[in-house]
Amino acid sequence: MAEEHPILVTSDLTIRFGGHVAVDQVSCSFDRGTLTAIVGPNGAGKTTYFNLISGQLHASSGRVTLNGEDITRMSVPERTDRGIGRAFQLTNLFPTLSVRENVRLVAQSRARKGFDLFSIAESHVELLERADHVLAEVRLIDQADQIVSALPHGDQRKLEVALLIALGPQVLMFDEPTAGMSVDEVPVILELIQKLKADMDRTILLVEHKMDVIRSLADRIIVLHNGELVADGDPAEVIALPVVQEAYLGKAPEAA
Amino acid sequence: MLTKLLSGDTPRSGLLTLLLLIVLISLAFAPFLFPGTKSLETAARICIFIVLVASYDLLLGYSGIVSFAHTMFFGIGAYGTALALSTTGPSYWSLIWGTATGAVVAAVFALAIGLFSLRVKAIFFAMVTLAVASAFAVLVSQMSWLTGGEDGLNYRIPRELTPAFKLVDEKILGVRINGKLLAYYLVFFASAALFLLMLRIVNSPFGRTLKAVRDNAFRAEAIGYRVVWYRTTATVLSAIMAALAGSLLAVWLRYTGPATTLSMEIMIDILLMVVIGGMGTLYGAVLGATLFILAQTYLQNLMGVAAEVTSAVPVVSTLVAPERWLLWLGVLFILSVYFFPSGIVGRLRAGRA
């Protein structure tokens, strides 16, 4: 059966920076329609692992396959075209453009209109409508005309998520989507991720530190520690593991 | 209709609209409003430089790419037309094939430079363009059998575009309706068309993508844009536009030489015009080019008058002596950058309540 095949597989994925092995032979597969939380202490290699999957970094050895296709050597836009989408930990937007234009650019990319030289961008109404639709979803529609650099931090985080939603990939990677958000803004993002998760065609990878967020969302947790995959399984089981208590929560096993 | 012609990118400021209209009307009726050879030369130069500066803004302002090879592309266009006119005679056919060849050669050069060096750091691209442009300028001055070397090329253009050709015998509004006038309007309408074309390009989905790449190339890649291809295409388009501006200059001057097209001085002038007018807005090119060329041409005269008036005052008269015009141009530039860091257009648009 088709859904039995994992959509995304990393096999022995490794990257070295000089003598330091940041991600060390991580083999893991992700099934369609699941949400996997990736946890581990700072410097465990979570973001590096993300970079290897979305293509900002290239593996020293090992492979990444998407739908059975080897994408290990592909560039970032090639992977984006094949269905990998990423929201960044540090806000990474187009600062001098308006909020609406940021999202419109994503819609434009998906409509493959980037090389349209002679039409007026604003005349592509469907792209503007798509942008406004996504902005309404993340509750940023009232700020649509503001310039991004003038936006408060929490709103920039929402826009970061909006860009990923507008991209509409098969694999969505969230790197601490709620970091730096005020308490009342966090539920908006969680609700959005919940909604995305309900769509069984999507696969979500989530790096997150907040345990309650992970408990409410994750189908599975994998634990990275010093670049190695040290635990993988059902959330309740993994959280209970001494190695997680130590590696993730920074507690000694006996204290747990 | 008008909005569509401007590709939806209206000036968005009352004062800016007014200034642009003044420039447009002055240039459109220049032969009648400002009779005389010198003023017509200035008007034609302004038209051509608007195209040249706008094409540079396509790179610098819209794509965030610093290039020092812009005069090389300008020169390639000018020499293309000049060589065609001098080898295959003063026909329209020569004019067309020379201009087309110039544009194609410029595009190929830009493509090569772009693909080789736009992948790497911005500073490296700037250095490569500087090196290539310098090498090209040396090459042109050395290959005198082809290019006339430092002396450049004098050639004839189709007779209908020369003062010898009389359209009407009588003067109209005190102006001779001759080939020179036709040549001016060729320059004017061609410049206007190229400007509107560029205005369309920067407001197209492609132009919007350029801004995204300029703002954050890393994220542009992550949403699926192949950054190198966008930068390279912008470089090629900008080179083609510069080459076409060069062809217009070649037709207008009936002379092409290193000093009028390839010199580093012109490169710096272009840079200043973009900055004074306002980067990332093509209307800035219009105001930047107009003000700069007017200052370049008439500041000396103005200062001559000032020197005469103040001849009794010792220090002041020395300061405003006509030979000090470059000093005052420098002062004007520093003041404009200090008070309008986002250029004249940026300032006017920000001032809009």
Key phrases:
heterodimer; A: 256 residues; alpha/beta; Rossmann fold; 2 domains; four-stranded antiparallel β-sheet; 9 helices; 10 strands; 34% helix; 23% strand; disordered C terminus; B: 353 residues; mainly alpha; ABC transporter involved in vitamin B12 uptake, BtuC; two-stranded antiparallel sheet; two-stranded antiparallel ribbon; 18 helices; 4 strands; globular
Compose a concise summary of this entry:
The complex is a heterodimer of chains A (256) and B (353). By secondary structure, chain A is α/β, with parallel strands linked by helices. Chain A has helices at residues 46-54, 76-82, 99-110, 125-137, 153-167, 186-198, 211-217, 235-240, 242-247, and strands at residues 8-17, 20-30, 35-39, 61-66, 69-70, 84-87, 171-175, 203-207, 220-225, 228-233.
What does this structure look like?
The complex is a heterodimer of chains A (256) and B (353). Chain A is 34% helix and 23% strand. Chain A contains 9 helices and 10 strands. The longest helix of chain A is centred in the middle third of the chain and has 15 residues, at 153-167. Chain B has a single domain (2-350), classed as Orthogonal Bundle (ABC transporter involved in vitamin B12 uptake, BtuC). Helices cover 74% and strands 4% of the residues of chain B. Chain B has helices spanning 2-5, 14-28, 30-33, 37-63, 70-87, 92-117, 122-142, 144-147, 179-202, 205-215, 217-222, 227-253, 258-261, 264-277, 282-309, 314-319, 325-339, 343-350, and strands at residues 153-154, 166-172, 175-178, 255-256. Chains A and B meet through helix 2 and helix 3 of A and helix 10, helix 11 and helix 12 of B.
In this structure, how is the largest beta sheet of chain B organized? 2 strands, antiparallel
Can you name the CATH architecture of the largest domain in chain A? 3-Layer(aba) Sandwich
CATH fold group of the largest domain in chain A: Rossmann fold
Strand content of chain B: under 5%
CATH topology of chain B: ABC transporter involved in vitamin B12 uptake, BtuC
Radius of gyration of chain A: 19 Å
Radius of gyration of chain B: 21 Å
- The CATH C-level name of chain B is Mainly Alpha
- What is the C-level CATH assignment of the largest domain in chain A? Alpha Beta
What is the total number of structural domains of chain B? 1
Please state the average pLDDT score of chain A. Answer: 90
Low-confidence stretches of chain A: 252-256
Helix content of chain A: 25-40%
List the secondary-structure elements of chain B in sequence, H or E: HHHHHHHHEEEHHHHEHHHHHH
Write down how many β-strands of chain A occur, each being a DSSP E stretch of 2 or more residues: 10
- The residue ranges of chain B in which pLDDT falls below 50 over 5 or more consecutive positions are none
What is the element string of chain A, with H for helices and E for strands?
EEEHEEHEHHHEHEHEEHH
Record field, number of beta strands of chain B: 4
* Discrete helix count of chain B: 18
